[in-house]
Amino acid sequence: MSPHAAEAPHRRRPARAVDVDDLFAPQRTARSDLPDPDPLVEALTRGVLEVLSGARDPDQLARWLSEDAYLALVTRANLSRRARSARRIPSHRPVFAVRTMRSMEPADGVVESVVVVAMPDRTRAIALRLEGLDGRWRATDIRIL
Question: A Pfam family this protein belongs to (predicted)?
């Protein structure tokens, strides 16, 4: 120890500023800590189709959706409801069969899936992006083609 070291006052390291929003924001979860996403992908596909047909309220899916995905689904459901109302088509539970379901993991804790469903009048594809947040899967983006 140098003789000047004893004379030097103890310097405190500046405290790292903690952003409170970061503490309460959704926390990413690793894939190894999450369950198999396929059952959720299939359930969300069914739920989204039921919301768009008017047979289900979008609030029932809110738990599994991020805020942006939920707002996009509500907007699309409102447009579908108006279109059905203008053509005087009643709401009904959709009849469909899942043809294919493909998933890939572009990053840890992220799953992107495409589900192709056959309906009596058309075939549709639903693309979903699930992210591991707060220890569970949440859909952060849903696209209906």
Answer: DUF6459
* CB distance 105 to 24 below 8 Å: no
Q: Which two tokens stand for residue 54?
A: 């008017």
Rounded to two decimals, what is the model's pTM?
0.79
The count of other CB atoms within 10 Å of the CB of residue 59 is 10
Check the CA dihedral 127-131-136-142 and report its sign.
negative
Q: What is the pLDDT of residues 55-75, one digit of tens each?
A: 999 999 999 999 999 999 999
* Total Cβ atoms within 10 A of residue 90: 8
Q: How far apart are CA 131 and CA 37, in angstroms?
A: 10
3 state SS of 105: strand
> CA angle, 65 as apex, 40 and 92 as ends, to 5°?
75
Please tell me the least confidently modeled range out of 50-54, 77-81, 83-87.
83-87
Domain ranges of the chain: 28-144
